[in-house]
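This week, study the protein below.
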Amino acid sequence: MREKIDLFLPCEDIEVAQSALLELHDNKTVQHINLLVSADFAAHHQVPDGCTFVVIDRLESSNTVESIAENTDADYVMICTKTTPIRWGLYALERFLRTADDTGAVMVYSDYYSLIKEDKEAAKVGGKEEKDGAEVLEAKADGAETHKLKAEQEAKTGKLIKHPVIDYQSGSLRDDFDFGSLWFIKAQALRDFIAQQDRADYQYAGLYDLRLYLSRVGEIFHLNEFLYTEDELDNRKSGEKQFDYVNPRNREVQIEMEKACTQHLNKVGALIDTSFYRQPDFGEQEFFYEASVIIPVFNREKTIADAVKSALSQKANFKFNVIVVNNHSTDRTGEILDEIAREMEARNDKQAGRLVQIVPVRNDLGIGGCWNVAINSEYCGKFAVQLDSDDLYSSPKTLQKIVDAFHNQKAAMMIGSYRMCDFDLNTLPPGLIDHKEWTEENGCNNALRINGLGAPRAFFTPLVRQIQFPNTSYGEDYALGLAFSRRYRIGRIYDELYLCRRWGGNSDAALSIEKVNANNLYKDRLRTMELKARQQMLQGKADIMEDSSISRFFNRQLERWEDARHRYRDLKHVESQTLSDLLKLQWNPARIVSTGAKIDKKTLDERPCFLCEKNRPKVQMSKQIDERFYLLVNPFPILPVHFTIPARKHQPQAIFKNYGEMHRFLSLHSELMVFYNGPKCGASAPDHLHFQAGTSGILPLQNNWQRLSRNITDIICLNDEEKIAAIRDYTVPAFVIISKSEESNEMLFKRLYSAMPQRGDETEPMMNIVAWRKGDETISIVIPREKHRPEAYFAKGDAQIMVSPGALDMSGLIITPREEDFRKLTEEKAEAILKECGISSEKMESIIHKLKAAKEAEESTITTSTLYNNGKQPDVSVGIVSGQKIHFSLNKPYLAKGEVVTGEQEVEFSEGGVLWNGNQYSSLTFHPQSCDASFSLSDVTIGVNFHWERKETQTFLGTLHFVVESDKICAINELPVEKYLESVISSEMSATSSLELLKAHAVISRSWLLAQMKKRRDVAKSGNNFFSFVKKDDMLIRWYDREDHTIFDVCADDHCQRYQGITKETSPHVAEAIRQTKGQILMDGEEICDARFSKCCGGITEEFQYCWENTPKSYLSAVRDIALGIKPEGLKSSMNAEGLKDARDTENLKDARNTEGLKDGDTENLKGSKALMDSEYRLPDLTQEKEADRWIRSNPPAFCNTTDRKVLSEVLNDYDQETADFYRWKVTLTQEKLQQLLEEKLKMNFGCILDMKAVERGTSGRISKLQIIGTEKTFTIGKELEIRRALSDSHLYSSAFVVDKFDLDENQVPQRFELIGAGWGHGVGLCQIGAAVMGNEGYSYDDILLRYYQGAEIKKIYK
């Protein structure tokens, strides 16, 4: 154990340091003693013997931590983190060292002694100040005199007290966590911390950042021994210290602490993204009172009247009450409350009856338990608002402000601001506590670092009923705040609302160290629980308590309605039996009401409608779904959760105009299934329009859907995924509608409805419908019916079987109210009943025939001018990555093969299929179960074959699809086009780009994408009848295009458009550009423009046929990249001044251009500008070698000829900006390197390269055919991308270049080639850098687009 430790001790006083150093020099465990000092201190003091000065800026900074790491080579470091004198305990360092070595901890800390020195004027004798000499005389007894002398000694030297500290846990995130002064750290962990690539630098949070890191990589161990003594330099009381984090003077420190904590939460997978917050539904339950003030109380006879009157005096435009939970007070508290109530009644106060006193039945409740009693009582209003029994509201408007803020901020919890004061309302330090450190984006994360959230607190009652307070009297409110902030917004009011009164009976201003530790330990435990809960939630693990407004509504209804509660309890015990995979029986006596119901007109007219509001039991709650429908708990359940959804207006059961309600309901409540019984197909109230909904995953039809869906016959398809199909393997003939949008769902249903037979005496075709959500799809099963009830229902005696099939029965769950029917039904009899009520196979085929005929008739009327996807936004499939194995993580729940999964996953290519979880599939799809569900793919390659190529883990929204391609698995992301574009534009462009540039890019990216999608579908129908290359003995002309992609629309890399999912955050600027141009594309007549674009055209854009197939596109013609006229404000500075040479007469300028409106300075700047001369606007013929040579070697003006870093940053990502020269560039290739490239890329041996000649150039000067002349072979290659790949390890900037030869040897073989080039990329269509300059020059997005795409039109094809 010799020389294992390097010490780092702060030093502000050499004399103080010397006393501590004496014993350290002789300690055998110490290797070096380093004194942490300021530069000024080091300059004016001599270094003590055996020590080293380490100059630091401040003790808490990252620079200091880095200096410590650089100055240690020991196994461990001991850092003193306070500038306080330390007195070492006996063998203290040895004990630290042994503990660290035995436990393997990365950090050890211990309990300690505090030496507290009191101010002279506050010196106490016997605990009281000496007031006069008489008191001294009274202390003459020996014991008293000894006590006095001891007290006087303590006043001089200080009082030594034990200072235990608490155990560290994962929730110990407070930056003021008390480790004591000494941190004993494993040196390698310290070095690893410094080596982090993403480590931030802090001025104040360096030590905090270090210990958070240590907690991630190992154990921080608490040694419960008092190993040293430190002087206590902060003698403030605990009640003052606790508010340091809200002191505005400490704001700069707190900002850094918050940043460090946020990064830590991100690294441990507990960072909440508030953009995914849920929004509370304030209408989810009905309340008599809008708000209730909640006052838990025990023995507060001195203050309770003030608190209650403060609450009752509130002025509000809504009903409120005051609920006081009297926790068995033994003083006059209860009597005072009774007196207040009697006084209100005696004077006929309008508030009479609004004061509710509840005495709990239990005797073991803390403050949290009292809150639970109040919020769960029938008296509680929609919002529960805090008022402690010691405190007051600041004004009569407090309650109104809080409730208004709930609605305005759409928050589930509100927190106001309070002022500390004494009993006479005089302000106490620190005064107003407003918690302005809270931010909308990160307050919920920073809440894990701080010890309180503020007051008064108010809660949306249904949510707080669900979460419940912990039954404690400390930290219960903080626990609720953390739980709320996990999923819901916490609103803030920064005005003073509340007076927190400190007085002798309630003061926690001076707590003992034991009490402070107990409080901190508990709050750390709350933070630990919350941290783990957030990790679980972000990993997609379901909460034990379903967090939805509909489940809270259901639970509350059962609490209030005893009959319904008993029936749901009885349902758990009903007998059931499984007849087959597709048939189950349930013996449910309570359903005799529905099964035996008469539905003839006379009966219906005579009985009151039980679905109308006026006839429903008073205890039955209702929840408004929308302006047309309510939600009720069904009091006669079949399902564990069973709802009825009646129309608000009494009207006959009819589906045609109301089918969309099923889709809308499932969109809101995807965890349920919804069903419809036609007027004579199971509806017990056919005179009142209604649906029903309930627990999903119980019906045999739904449970077997994965198997049944493998054998369905498509009848009508809107696209690859939305369709009507016939189900072939079910008990009765049925149809399925698979849709992704409400519009598609309704459109397909109406087609099916129109094809179904309707009898003359019926109001609609007979049918049952059952629907549920599967990922982003809605599955609707439509079961046509022939009969209302089977013949056996009407039979007499033993032949009778009392089964009246509705949607659930037809879906395989047959309800039998009578036991004898339950006992005698067999699989064959049950199947026969369903088949009797369903339609025949012949009628099924007739419906299919009508559907197809109607579709064919419709298609014959569609003209070629019909735009893409019938006016709806399409989905795009994007190929992300392929490989033998693909590792990925589902960050939220996904559905795959009927199983809800989350977390780490892996698929593997095996025997021509996809192997997952031990099962092999031809393909595999993971459907998101929420709109914010995302997945992360490992080792995604970006920049394939480019100089910035690298692998990343990337995260995506939407559906994940795995298919087999050749001998690999390909991962495909499916998502809406506009969502895809958000990522593309964010990846391709900078958020600082002008809005017009972003809008232009959104339109071309959308146009190009839809053109490729259409092309892939056309190829899939007709086949690919052309080759993307021409090969001869002496020539290979090849181009690269989308026909490479046959199993998806586009790839995620630069080969198509750079797509990174949500890995890179979409800026509001980009989102706005996409929103403003939604559905807009470029059209050439009836054709979607193939809107190509590249980084830099080099001065002239290229024509399509020189880069791809020989089919010229009129809108992709050569365009000179410069303005054809001068705008009134003159040219700005974005264009490169180097292009404005060769001064000519300003008069020529005036003749050539209208300079009206130009200022003198503008005209002066334009004098002689070659860029503005008519001769420079002509389009040179760069297909001619001489013209191309002159053009490429010159530096003509152009929009894209710029070095403006701001403009370039709008287009070029960080790794793109590594390329400094792109408008004109030069590349040098040695003979050896050129031979190596050509042999590697073309697989040919040319011998020594003699020359490279352009055989054909395009209109931008880009070579489309290049002849390579060697001593062994001459060969021609093309087109431009093939040339660029052949002459570079990755890609040459462009194929617009000329060749210079140097250093010819004796055989006239050049030893060096220089390629002088122009532009970056293929140059076809929009020039990104040129467009960026135009955007900065004030051009609108349509000006930009129609300049680069000559003759095209901008059209909107979907909304």
Remarks:
- Residues 995-1022 form the longest helix (28 residues).
- Residues 934 and 957 are 4 Å apart (CA to CA).
- DSSP finds 43 helices and 55 strands in the chain.
- The longest strand covers residues 220-232.
